[in-house]
Design a protein that fits this description.
2 copies of one chain form a homodimer.
Chain A (H helix, E strand, L loop, with lengths): L7 H20 L6 H7 L14 H19 L6 H12 L2 H5 L6 H9 L4 H22 L8 H20 L3 H19 L1
Helix pairs in contact in A: 1-3, 3-7, 4-7, 7-8, 8-9
The first copy, chain A, binds a DNA duplex through α1.
Chain lengths: 190, 190
DNA sequence: TGTACATCAGTGAACGCGCGTTCACTGATGTAC
DNA sequence: TGTACATCAGTGAACGCGCGTTCACTGATGTAC
C-alpha cells in the first residue's frame, strides 16, 4: 500500500522549509530562486510543485515554520526575566548579526514580509502574537496582559537594532549599536 | 555652447532619485525594475545609463538622497524634546504605515540595505550617523554625546515598530502596535 | 533674419539570463499471485 | 521464491516573461555665419 515510509514526503517537505528559511534569511525572499532553494534541499527544481502550490505558498509556510522555531526556543531559556536577559545578550551579539541565515526571521525579513500577500502576513501575525505573549509572560509572570505594550517595545527594539547593525559598513559603529542596544533593552525592560 | 539649461540633466537625475525612492520604499529594492523606475520619472529605460552606472549605483544614490531628505526634515521640527515627541507621534501614525512610499527609508528597506553592497551600506552609514546625531542633540542639548546610546534605542524602536505594524494582517493588532509604540518611545526617551 | 551644423538627453528595440512554472518521463519501491 | 505490475517522489528540459544592460538612432536645441 505504502511504497515509501509514510513520513518520507513530510520529512522532505520539512527539509525544504528549513533550508529555504536559511536561504531566505540570508539572501532575502526576492533574492532566492526556486532552483537554488531546491538545490539547497538536495533536490531539483521540478520537485518543488509536488510540495508547494507556488513560491508565495512556500514563503507563507517558511514564515510560519520560522516563527514556530523561534517560539520553541523560548522553552530552552532560564525562567522569567533572567532568561529574557540572556536572550537579549544572545540576540544582540556579533555572532547573530554575522550569520543571518541561522538567526531571527524578523531581523532578516520583516520589511519584506510587510510587502507580501495576506497568507504570509497571516502566518507572521499568528507567530508574532505568540512571541509577544511569551515575552510578556516573562516580564510580569503575575499579569502578562499588562506587559503586552512593554513586550512590543522590547521586541521591536531588538529587531530594529539588529537590522541597523547589519546595515552599517563601519564595523566599529555596528558593534557600538549592538552594545548600546543591550544597554537600551535591559534598561527598557527595567 | 549649452544646448539645454545647464541644470537640466541634474534636475532629471534628481527626479529619477526621488521617484525611485518612492517606488523602492513601496515595492522593495529587488521588487522595482529599471524600466518601471524610469517610467515613474517620465522617461524610457534606455536613458537610465546616461545617469547611473548600474542599478546598484542608483540604489546607493537613492539611499543617500533619502537619508538627506530625512535629516532635512528635522529642521522643520519644534526645537528640543518637544519636536522629538511630535516626530514620534507622526512617525508611528497609521498614515505613515499605510503610505510607505512617502515614508521612512529605514522602516521600508533596512533589512534589504543590510544585504546590499558596500557603496549602499556606506551611504546608509553616513546618513544614519547624522540622523542619530540629530536625535541625540534633541535628547540632551547640553551633552549630545551622552545621549548617543539613547538615540540608537529610540530610532531602532521606531523603525522596528513601524515594520512590525506593516507586517500584521490584523488591523486592530497593527493599530495596537503603533499605539503601544508611541507609549514605549515616549517612556524610553524619558 | 535665415539656414546648416554640432550637441547630447532621451528613445526604443534588442541582448543574454535567470525567474517561476509545467510536464512527460524515470526508477526505486511495495504488492499481487 | 520469482516475476509482472502499480505507485509516486523526484528528474530535467522546456515554457514565456521580465530582468539589467547595450546601442544605433532621433530630434529638439543653441551656435555660426
Amino acid at each position: 500500500m505504502v511504497r515509501y515510509a509514510k513520513e518520507h514526503k513530510q520529512v522532505t517537505r520539512q527539509r525544504i522549509l528549513e533550508k529555504a528559511g536559511h536561504r531566505f534569511k540570508q539572501d532575502g525572499l526576492d533574492g532566492s530562486g526556486v532552483s537554488t532553494l531546491m538545490s539547497d534541499a538536495g533536490l531539483t527544481n521540478g520537485a518543488f510543485y509536488a510540495h508547494f502550490a507556488s513560491k508565495d505558498d512556500l514563503v507563507a509556510n517558511v514564515v510560519a515554520d520560522q516563527l514556530r522555531t523561534q517560539i520553541a526556543a523560548y522553552d530552552t531559556l532560564r525562567p522569567g526575566r533572567t532568561g529574557l536577559e540572556d536572550l537579549i545578550r544572545e540576540y544582540l551579539s556579533p555572532g547573530h548579526r554575522d550569520n543571518p541565515g541561522a538567526g531571527c526571521p524578523s531581523a532578516a525579513l520583516l520589511d519584506e514580509i510587510g510587502r507580501c500577500g495576506d497568507a504570509t502576513k497571516q502566518a507572521y501575525t499568528d507567530g508574532a502574537r505568540r512571541i509577544l505573549d511569551e515575552i510578556a509572560a516573562r516580564l510580569t509572570p503575575g499579569d502578562p496582559q499588562s506587559a503586552r505594550g512593554k513586550a512590543i517595545g522590547l521586541y521591536t527594539m531588538l529587531v530594529g537594532t539588529m537590522q541597523l547593525s547589519r546595515a552599517l559598513s563601519d564595523r566599529t559603529f555596528a558593534d557600538e549599536v549592538l552594545e548600546k542596544g543591550i544597554e537600551n533593552a535591559l534598561a527598557f525592560m527595567g
